[in-house]
Design a protein that fits this description.
It is built from 11 helices and 10 strands. It is an alpha+beta fold.
């Protein structure tokens, strides 16, 4: 029995005896548990410390330690164990190679985490100042930085695996033209996204009208922009289509007032004195309502069945709901005042004159 066990642990497996593999596994598990415990203790200590300070640097350090992956801890324990247990050099090289890739992956996570913290800091500051255009640009640049960081990680990982990066980049340069031609739409949307970040025609939170679509901008991505319509559904429009369309932006920072024009028709039988008073009446009605700015009120047309007056005024608010409510109140006041003044509104009528042929 003892001989059988001795022979088993000395059995060759991938150029190493089983006892060496067992010792490697045991030491790896012990180191992993110890490092994980150490990580949790340090992380909790730093978190408690950062809550008592206003310094942002310790927040970054705490975030870095907290984001330390268990996968990295495991491979780090395996890498350290392989230095103490004698195993085949080829296996040691593969463990080291894998550890370098995992280490680069962990560095990438740290870089993305720190960049997100920095971008979120400036994003929060802009949100407090209601500068949604800067918020949109910061969100876009954050996504771009994340893409660049992952690209760098991929190139370093391939280099560690023995891939000739110089030849790969040269090959991508040669094949880039074909890729660009095949993906014109995607690249067009990507450059349109960059244009939106730099030129800032829209921002998150803007109420826009785009052809037959209208709604509030919820997200501006690399490929498309998401809009929440008034009825609640999500409208997704590619960035290139958005920039190539006629866009109307009703956000408060862009539009301080809304101009409204109302056509009012009164009957031809209205006395001359009443006609002269209509301009004064309309002026008084507009000036009696807060958040309105009178522009003009004039008789503009002798129509088929009415004398038409044009009332023009500004609503000094960019909020769409308030704009509708003010227009509602003003029209009711016009109806009320005209009833008091006994001025009749015109409606489509036709008078037929019948001649008696016997006369």
């Amino acid at each position: 029995m003892f001989n059988w066990f001795t022979n088993l642990i000395k059995t060759d497996f991938f150029n190493n005896v089983l006892i060496d593999w067992g010792l490697l596994l045991l030491l790896t598990i012990i180191l992993f548990l110890f490092l994980k415990l150490f990580k949790n203790i340090i992380s909790n200590k730093i978190i408690d410390f950062t809550e008592k300070t206003s310094n942002k640097i310790d927040d970054y350090i705490g975030s870095v330690i907290k984001s330390l992956s268990n996968v990295f801890v495991l491979f780090f324990a395996l890498f350290i164990s392989s230095k103490f247990i004698f195993i085949d050099q080829q296996i040691t090289d593969r463990i080291e190679q894998l550890f370098v890739i995992v280490f680069l992956w962990q560095l990438t996570k740290w870089a993305i985490n720190i960049s997100s913290l920095i971008f979120d800091k400036y994003k929060s500051a802009r949100e407090k100042e209601k500068d949604m255009h800067s918020v949109t640009a910061i969100s876009g640049f954050n996504k771009l930085v994340r893409f660049l960081i992952w690209t760098i990680f991929l190139l370093l990982a391939l280099d560690n695996l023995g891939v000739n990066i110089t030849a790969l980049v040269a090959g991508l340069g040669i094949g880039g033209l074909a890729i660009a031609l095949a993906a014109q739409s995607i690249l067009g949307d990507l450059f349109a996204s960059l244009t939106i970040m730099i030129d800032k025609p829209i921002a998150i939170g803007d109420y826009i009208v785009l052809d037959n679509y209208m709604g509030t901008v919820k997200n501006i991505g690399i490929k498309s922009t998401k809009i929440e319509s008034i009825s609640g559904e999500e409208i997704i429009i590619s960035n290139s289509d958005l920039l190539n369309s006629r866009l109307r932006n009703y956000h408060q920072s862009r539009m301080q007032k809304r101009r409204t024009t109302i056509m009012i028709g009164v009957v031809y039988s209205t006395p001359y004195e009443k006609l002269k008073d209509i301009q004064k009446i309309l002026t008084e009605i507009v000036n009696s309502i807060n958040s309105t700015d009178f522009v003009r009120a004039s008789m503009v047309e002798f129509a088929d069945f009415s004398l038409n007056f044009e009332l023009v005024y500004n609503v000094k608010s960019a909020d769409h709901t308030e704009y509708i409510e003010i227009n509602h109140k003003l029209r009711l006041k016009i109806f009320e005042r005209f009833a008091i003044e006994k001025i009749e509104f015109a409606f489509p009528t036709r008078t037929i004159h019948i001649e008696n042929p016997t006369k």
